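Treating backbone geometry as a discrete language has practical consequences that deserve illustration. Part of our work consisted of pairing the sequence of a single chain with a tokenised description of its backbone. We regard such an encoding as a compact summary of how the chain folds. The amino acid sequence and the backbone structure tokens for this protein are reproduced below.
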Amino acid sequence: MRKTIIYLFILTFSFSFSQNKKGEILTDGQGNIIEKKELIKKDNLEPKTPNKILKEFYLNQNNFENLDNLMSFRFYQKTPYSEFKNAIESKNKTCGKLLNYKIVQTEYSDDKKSVRLNTDVNYENMNTIEQILLIKETDNDNYEVFGYELKIK
């Protein structure tokens, strides 16, 4: 009896460690997928600062898959994915290639869970003033893009 209990304990212990959660899917009330996330061990990652998120945002203007990884699901609750994709494609055609950007103002909320970054951005064809609002759900999360506005200088 004792050997059986020990064997079951070892089997249960090893079984619990063999289950790997590969990802997470967030759906709305009708079962439509809002967000898919691949889970990564947070021990191996550095937290992404707002400046790092901003850099990735500008470097990935032509790569929607990478750009999408920076976006908050709350952004897509306000702006459908196809509408955002069309707006970015239109901006890229009109403004031309990104030359450089400079943060001119950074404003954090009191709880540090959101930050507004105002940037001067130079493209081949024009200069713009862009505002990017980043949020994070919890203190341990990375910032994600919640809002994006562009004004021509």
